[in-house]
Amino acid sequence: MAATAPKHDVRDLALAPAGMTRIEWADRQMPVLASIRERFEREKPLEGYRISACLHVTTETANLARTLKAGGADVLLCASNPLSTQDDVAAALVAEYGVPVFAIKGEDDDTYYSHITAAVDHHPHMTMDDGADVIGVLHSKRPEQLGEIIGGTEETTTGVIRLRALEADGKLGFPIVAVNEAKTKHLFDNRYGTGQSTIDGIVRATNILLAGRRFVVCGYGWVGRGVALRARGMGAHVIVTEVDPLRALEALMEGFQVLSTEKAAEVGDIFCTATGDKHVLARRHFERMKDGAILANTGHFNVEIEIPALQDMATETRVARPFVEEFMFEDGRRVYLIADGRLVNLGAAEGHPAAVMDMSFANQALSAEFVVKHADELEPKVYVVPEDIDREIARLKLEAEGVEIDTLTEEQARYLASWDEGT
């Protein structure tokens, strides 16, 4: 079926020159993706395929879109979060690079979902999600389009959880490559990228001193590890809450205090959720928090903090600073919520540094190429990124950084592959 005629919905095309300058700056920090783009320009591995991408519209994403387009794809981009769009970047993609973009920072829910509908109306052959929203709409409202799609990719933990649930129910309509599961994604992007950018978002929004504060990290997955590591590096006393005994034990042995969320609520100054689950911080926790507690979320959706409970408990609310809402309780305590409980690193800052997104988006580009090459073989399942792609991205990154590593000698390789050479 023919795609809907390309349009766009961005804040202001006059912002394009500023956006282009920022895109070019990020590109200089993304040598792996740039090398893939050069090859894609020559080989056109995505020629003739429509891709609908629902991602955070940032400078890094712009360079991914450029790479997909260089590979011959007809790309349409919408936002995967209402607060994560960089309006100048969205404008530049439309005006300078010819990529239809549907994204406005601060868009309301109706606009957000109309933009996702635009991505579905593109009649993609391939989806590229960060949170599985496009895939969700396709499965729930446009099942007749599932047969048009050869595959997709998913960028984040929350989306992978959703898609594995779809697969387990036998309802997944096409194959998905879980980019989030690539080692060069979650070991680096989730830990170092989110770790740094989350702290950046909290500090930009509040201008508080972290040193000496009790900083509660809810969840000790790769994102939680990164946030805890960076908060400790800023001098905070870090407390970790967990439901997984292995992760809790690891946090303890890394030198962090481990408490139940109920106990942490009584002593914490700053709280950051990083779980992918809902109501991690809820009414029972707000009731225990001390005056001045600051709440932030770095998980994908704004359900980790029970915002309706905050609103119900508050006798008065006001905007204390840009992106910071103050909730006054009946007993005089005040609690502060950053960026409406949405991704704090994108809602109140610029998201991950480009150097780490270089690897994540290299995975996206190469996974798209993989889906095209193997479309006839893939079943409607969730696949991990092939190890050879993961290793090639790591190799390219090291090469770009000017780092050389060793190779095994024939004797060493033979020894590792043998069973009969003993001590």
Give a brief description.
It contains 17 helices and 15 strands. By secondary structure, the protein is α/β, with parallel strands linked by helices. The chain folds into two domains: 222 residues, Adenosylhomocysteinase-like (Rossmann fold), CATH 3.40.50.1480; 155 residues, NAD(P)-binding Rossmann-like Domain (Rossmann fold, 3-Layer(aba) Sandwich).
Explained architecture:
Helix content is 45%, strand content 16%. It is an alpha/beta fold and 423 residues long. The protein has two domains: 13-185 and 352-400, Adenosylhomocysteinase-like (Rossmann fold, 3-Layer(aba) Sandwich), CATH 3.40.50; 193-347, Rossmann fold, CATH 3.40.50. The protein has an eight-stranded mixed beta sheet with strand order 9-8-7-10-11-14-13-12, sandwiched between helices. A hairpin with a 2-residue loop joins strand 12 (314-321) and strand 13. The longest helix is centred in the middle third of the chain and has 24 residues, at 183-206. It is globular.
